[in-house]
Design a protein that fits this description.
The complex is a heterodimer of chains A (280) and B (394). Chain A is an alpha/beta fold and 280 residues long. In chain A, a hairpin with a 4-residue loop joins strand 12 (256-263) and strand 13. Chain A contains six helices and 13 strands. In chain A, helix 5 runs parallel beside helix 6. Chain A has helices spanning 2-17, 46-61, 80-85, 89-93, 143-155, 180-192; strands at 33-38, 66-69, 97-100, 124-128, 131-135, 160-164, 197-200, 206-209, 216-220, 237-241, 246-253, 256-263, 268-275. Chain A has one domain (2-275): Purple Acid Phosphatase, chain A, domain 2 (4-Layer Sandwich), CATH 3.60.21. Chain B has helices spanning 16-30, 34-48, 50-83, 93-120, 130-134, 138-149, 153-175, 181-202, 209-226, 259-282, 292-318, 329-338, 343-353, 358-369, 372-384. The longest helix of chain B is centred in the N-terminal third of the chain and has 34 residues, at 50-83. The chains are: A alpha/beta (280), B mainly alpha (394).
């Protein structure tokens, strides 16, 4: 009965916020920050290439400047040509930058692979206009990294704060679920320093949560891999999709973040707007 | 092992209910079951109320892992030092040689299988966890083997193999961090601590606690300052403690008839509490966190180490060494498999070598799952009709 109720609530919330028939438009403002999001993509198989094609097609209408990669950028043999350079060749040729986080399937040495723009670091930060991105390595969350995270958060005066890393703090995926241990360590910092949105991968589905302590969590782990039917929706699920590979388009204009999640076939499976958290 | 006798007056009357509890506590105590109990509570807690568990576990981690475990490793060192003294069960090199070779083979086999598995799966981030695959839970192996074959050469063989393997692991742990200036300051302080212990020994100080409280504390600060795992702090101090030679009856009641033994009793009791807390703080893992690292640890422990042990012993025998009395290849196969449980030491190694994160989580699940090695050992012993299963019909 409780499960049924949860499913009903989730379906209601999902439909209420993100009606597939009336997707929220990306405004395409001149001064906005536009980027794409992919995770668990580096399989080198056909679906990854098809997502790459969809991203290229989307860029003709929505000229995003960079892509954030949520980890597991290269599965198995770390063959950057067949698992990265070819699938995203049109984007790379157009000068689109990629900023990668490390997943459990990534060789640590990949941080020095120039097109991943990690500057040789496992964790790093970069800024795009009024948006600061914080990239963590959740494979090995040592004391040094935790101190760096807190210090970098403290120093940031940017309007928007977005964190991304591979392992999700909140997930309704059936295989892994939420990484509660990481949540205990990271969530207090994310909340205290006013992070607005968090992106993760690892779980091979797409999911958006209802804001948790003011933060919206996205799981985008199906840009190459896919675990069909793996979503176990609960009350924290705002939207989820596990039937096809997906990627996301995001635009931050002023105090609003617009997002669209698009499947391999070009279908919009989720969209919406997130308002900037009020200053605390 | 001499059982702890209960006073007769506790065996009757209204106290009977309480004596059952006392006996249960004694049972848990005598068989070193506090750690598995702590681990079980942690597992249930982590997988039902994760947020409260991990907040609790992280708060407990430093005092237990960095301070409390120093007493546990000190006790293990004490066992090893006393066994190698004149009159001890491992005094002569002949008793050492074959198990040491077996330990080397087991280490190589476990490391090879672990690294091979990780390399096959192309998960380079897991490479640094290889020492976890090498750890042996000597107590678990001891009880499994004792149940199957009883006392004798097989048991000594297993214990020495386990102690040598874990000693190598501790050495790796001590050498793990990169050199910093803190090492130099720490080394100077360590020399002071060890010299003080030597002076106490020279002055025939019989009491146990001055060594632990004064020299041990200085040594702990030295290790901490140097950036070396401070749980190793008592290892260089223990050889200076008053000792008596002993056999290999691990965790046995040694009588409380002198200062040394009395202090050891207290020490063992404190260590039991620490092991319970260690299990509680470290064994709580999300079971869905299993991944390649889990399978790599299991492959290394259940296949790599036994194969390494057997291969190394075969080479040593070909080189002219001899098996202990009453130990043949069938018994040796069971000994080799009995080394497969990593549990306590694997968990300790995991938390020592790896920070919090996905790598630690999957490796910890593997460390816990090596408990399955005990069941596999019983199964194989039954199949091969070894020890107590010698007369079992197929």
């Amino acid at each position: 009965m409780r499960t049924l109720l949860c499913t009903f609530i989730v379906a209601f919330v999902a439909l209420g916020q993100t009606p597939a028939s009336q997707p929220v438009d990306l405004p395409g403002a001149v001064d906005s920050v536009k980027f794409a999001v992919i995770g668990d993509n580096g399989t080198g198989k056909q679906p990854q290439y098809e997502i790459g094609q969809q991203m290229s097609a989307a860029r003709t209408r929505f000229p995003f400047e960079f892509v954030i990669m949520l980890g597991d950028n290269l599965y198995g043999s770390q063959d950057v040509v067949s698992k990265f350079e070819r699938p995203y060749a049109p984007l790379l040729q157009a000068g689109v930058r990629f900023h990668a986080a490390l997943g459990n399937h990534d060789a640590p040495e990949n941080r020095s692979y120039r097109p991943f723009n990690m500057g040789g670091d496992r964790y790093y930060t970069f800024v795009e206009k009024h948006v600061r991105f914080f990239v963590f390595d959740t494979n090995l969350l040592d004391e040094t990294q935790l101190s760096w995270i807190e210090e970098t958060f403290r120093q940031s005066q940017d309007t928007w704060k977005i964190a991304y890393f591979h392992h999700p703090l909140y997930s309704d995926g059936g295989r892994h679920g939420s990484d509660v241990e990481l949540r205990v360590l990271l969530e207090p910092l994310l909340v205290r320093y006013g992070v607005d949105v968090v992106f993760s991968g690892h779980e091979h589905i797409y999911q958006r949560t209802v804001p948790q302590k003011g933060i919206t969590y996205f799981v985008e782990g199906s840009s190459g891999q896919l675990r069909k039917g793996d979503v176990r929706a609960t009350a924290m699920t705002a939207a989820a999709f596990d039937q096809d590979q997906t990627f996301m388009l995001v635009e931050i204009a002023g105090r609003q973040l617009f997002f669209r999640t698009i499947s391999r076939t070009g279908r919009i499976v989720d969209s919406g707007v997130i308002a900037l958290q009020p200053e605390t | 092992m001499k059982p702890h006798a209960l006073p007769q007056h506790l065996m009757a009357g209204p106290w009977f209910g309480r004596t059952r509890s006392v006996r249960l506590l004694r049972f848990v105590n005598d068989r070193f079951l506090w750690l598995p109990l702590g681990a079980l509570i942690a597992l249930i807690w982590a997988n039902t109320q994760g947020e409260t568990y991990f907040a609790f576990a992280h708060a407990l981690a430093f005092p237990v892992n960095e301070i409390g475990m120093a007493l546990f490793l000190g006790l293990i060192t004490q066992e090893a030092v006393e066994a190698t003294m004149p009159g001890g069960a491992l005094h002569t090199w002949r008793r050492w040689s074959l198990p040491v070779i077996a330990a080397a083979g087991g280490l190589a086999g476990a490391a090879f299988f672990y690294l091979g598995f990780v390399s096959w799966r192309h998960e380079a981030v897991l490479v640094q966890a290889w020492p976890v695959a090498c750890a042996i839970d000597v107590a678990a192996g001891y009880y499994v083997l004792k149940t199957i074959v009883g006392r004798g050469g097989a048991l000594s063989f297993l214990v020495v193999t386990g102690i040598v393997t874990n000693a190598a692991g501790l050495l790796i742990l001590a050498l793990w961090p990169a050199f910093t200036m803190g090492h130099l300051g720490g080394a100077v302080l360590l020399v002071v601590a060890v010299s003080l212990a030597a002076m106490m020994r020279r002055s025939k100080v019989r009491a146990f606690w001055p060594y632990l409280a004064v020299c041990g504390t200085l040594s702990w600060v030295a290790f901490y300052w140097a950036g070396v795992h401070p749980a190793l702090a008592l290892v260089p101090i223990v050889p200076f403690l008053p000792h008596q030679p002993r056999g290999l009856e691990l965790f046995a009641d040694r009588g409380a008839d002198d200062t040394v033994r009395h202090a050891e009793h207290t020490w063992t009791a404190v260590v039991q509490v620490i092991l319970f807390l260690f299990g509680l703080a470290n064994a709580g893992v999300l079971l869905r966190g299993y991944d390649t690292g889990t399978w790599a640890i299991l492959a290394a422990a259940l296949v790599g180490r036994p194969v390494g042990v057997l291969a190394a012993v075969a080479l040593a025998l070909a080189g002219g060494l001899h098996l202990p009395r009453h130990v043949g290849w069938r018994e040796l196969t069971i000994i080799a498999l009995a080394t497969s449980t990593g549990f306590t030491f694997a968990l300790f190694a995991a938390t020592s070598f790896l920070p919090t994160g996905a790598v630690l989580a999957q490796v910890k699940v593997g460390a816990l799952a090596t408990v399955g090695g005990a069941a596999a050992t019983f199964g194989l012993a039954r199949m091969m009709r070894v020890g107590k299963f010698a007369h079992v019909r197929r």
